[in-house]
């Protein structure tokens, strides 16, 4: 993969809801080739931003059993973001290929510069260890083991900062879980990976990536690897080789040797495996890792700018040798779809493949952040709003309720007494009770006088002098009268 855009870029034109596809990009040139795919520089048509687009043949992946690795890589990259990772921006697919659009890093990969005999100073190696150490520390917090840290998977941007790429065999471990498969590139694999393959240990975890980083750091400085391990070396021989002492040139400083020695510790427990442990080494003790992460430390080695730092033969191969060149994809797919008019292109897609748009994710996270801020402001406003006076609402005393009931009964009796003389017998009974009603009214008057404290402006004074308001829940006399008359 190639080259130089920061993951902090903004592209407001992509804040829409439309998914990105192959037609949104203009193909510029090929810059890389891997086991299952190729990489080219593309330009997004609406924003003119340059990206690196990795594409893998779906049929080739399925025939070689590598489709699961590609799906897992997209799933991992969609959940990761760090200044020293090659971050994913878009993913999509068509009937032929699966696409991943990532940061473009024009400085080329570290293998390219090693093959061109670039001499990296101790300062250059130390800064690269800090940058990639920061990325590995981040991955460890995300419980991700890369398992293939090597010069081929370390890309430099235009200024010379290092970025880790290719998560094809990376895995996310369960809490307190172990990885147990023999995955990686043999010359850069840690001893415990080989021991796991020999059934000498149950598994391995995050320190394997720090061992690989130590091998890379040694190779950068010496231009050879510390151990003579190759792809065809037997496992038993590898175990013996990795336990042999490492040769350090005399002109290397003692602090630099100390750093490499702690990265190449055979025992995982004694190996540097975090940014904090990295900071405690004599060589990096005074390094400001905040400046490192913010890319304020200027790399001593800056890749050449007068040419693209990759093999120029890759572009010729894409133009001449490739049977299905990318720049002819649109016409090719149009012919295929025209010949198969009755078939639906959607049925030919991989259902498990994640269609991703980082700008949509950024927009969603920005909205969630604003909502949290609004909720916090509302809670603070409610907390600062203090009610100074609050009059409690109490029920009226039971004696007042009795008076109200008596009033209602008396009103009903009085109503009955006003009926005509020729009323029915029940009405005559009501007349006879009118005298009793007048007596009741006299009694009620005295009761009302006894309850005058409750009648005074409808309130009563409490012990502490506050005004207590009562709610009269007794039925209205008129209402009772209406129902009984």
UniProtKB/TrEMBL annotation:
Residues annotated for ATP binding in this entry: 54
Family in the record: Belongs to the protein kinase superfamily.
Keywords (A to Z) from UniProt: ATP-binding, Coiled coil, Kinase, Nucleotide-binding, Serine/threonine-protein kinase, Transferase
This protein's name: Protein kinase domain-containing protein
PANTHER family per UniProt: G PROTEIN-COUPLED RECEPTOR KINASE/RIBOSOMAL PROTEIN S6 KINASE, SERINE_THREONINE-PROTEIN KINASE 32B ISOFORM X1
Domain named Protein kinase: residues: 25-284
One Gene Ontology term of the molecular function aspect: G protein-coupled receptor binding
Compositional bias per record (Polar residues), positions renumbered to this chain: 420-431, 451-465, 476-485
UniProt xrefs under PROSITE patterns: PROTEIN_KINASE_ATP, PROTEIN_KINASE_DOM, PROTEIN_KINASE_ST
Region entry Disordered, spans: 414-485
Keyword RNA-binding: no
Coiled-coil regions, chain positions: 357-384
Biased composition regions of type Low complexity, renumbered to the chain: 435-450
Nucleotide-binding listed as a keyword: yes
Single GO BP term: G protein-coupled receptor signaling pathway
SMART domains, alphabetized: S_TKc
InterPro entries to which the protein is assigned, alphabetical: Kinase-like_dom_sf, Prot_kinase_dom, Protein_kinase_ATP_BS, Ser/Thr_kinase_AS
Species, as recorded: Stomoxys calcitrans (Stable fly)
